[in-house]
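Hi support team,

I submitted a single chain yesterday and got back a structure, but I'm not sure I'm reading the token output correctly. Could someone confirm the output below corresponds to the sequence I sent? I've pasted both exactly as they appear in my results page.

Thanks,
R.
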Amino acid sequence: MPQGAALAPEVKLREVWAWSMYDFANSGYTTVVITAVYNAFFVAAVAGRAPWATFAWTAALSLSYLAVLLTAPLIGAWADAHAAKKRLLGIATAGCVLSTAALVLPGPGAVALAIAFIVLSNFFFSVGENLIAAFLPELADAKAMGRVSGWGWAFGYLGGLVSLGISLIYITWAQGRGQGAAQFVPATMLITAALFALCATPTFLFLRERAVPQPRDGKAWARVLDTLRHARQYRDLRRFLVCILFYQAGIMAVIALAAIYAQEAMKFTQQQTIVLVLVVNVTAAAGAFGFGYLQDAIGHVRAMALILAGWIVMIALAYLADDAPKFWVAANLAGLCMGSSQAAGRAIVGYLSPRRREAEFFGLWGLAVKAASIFGPLTYGAVTWIFQGDHRLGILAVGAYFVVGLALLAGLDMERGRRAVLEAG
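Hi R., thanks for writing in. Yes, this is the structure output for that exact sequence:
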């Protein structure tokens, strides 16, 4: 299928590029703030490596995800009813950019202030992530959800690469001038916020809001209740959302704690950790792009099963790694699986979501992802706290979530789920 045929009627490549640019823009936040720089800075500098430091970090993320959990379906339903996905996306983007920039303020010891801005920035990031995903069914042909989703995620990992690369250049320059982490890490938050705002601009210039306001048949919460009442009609989407709840718990633990694991378990320096994450972003981009095509070729369920099996192997390698080369292998396998699983999951939800309610159903997707984001990292944080900082046991514990996700995937019937969508109109 040529690239043009992968798109829905009247959709041009420029618009898909503009949609992908949002993935490019917001990935700098997850890469620099959540994965590579600020998480390790929070544990080591802000919280002073206290026994509860890793748990405090995971608790802050979990609090933000709880807020998303409670609001995402309502925001999505309101966006559908008022044809306001793009408008709400602008508000979420501004909120994330401003609260990320505000991370320049907390210094060593200012734990409460740092937690407040992490909760705010991650909440706005997550809302924006749900809303941009809801445009996918409008842009892609139903048979090409995997590859179009993969284009966005691949572009996103390149964006993370750019943000982290610029941050690394700045950190290297700052260290050469004798600055410490308390000076250069806050500056990278300003860099990340500025790049987010700049790179998201094409999205708001060229991405169209194709939805039309729908009859006022009730408030947002009533639409969500209606969806839940008729959930039996979408049994395969419901099963996949439960599957996401488990496997995404493992993924979010890896994302949130990768730098902490590298520095605390493998004794990487901050620069070594950043270089590792840079390379992993390249691997993740390749995984997102390549698996999108593979997913369309071999089927959604087979592709996702292959990805989850890869995650299980990765967890075993990370647990057993006793030197840097072995950990590099595990980390790059994680990158390959991460890019693949994020693109594949978004495509499956798009394939199984009814028309004119995309934002609402992607809100349910966000609900499942963020619920997983609460107990996944918290599992890791609790295990390291209980077992006196044993990060290897922490990574092994979250590996169980991938096993459960793989088991749940076995009962998914994509064509039955798609028929339910078409019958619903």
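A quick pointer for reading it: The mean pLDDT is 86. Let us know if anything else looks off.

Best,
Support desk
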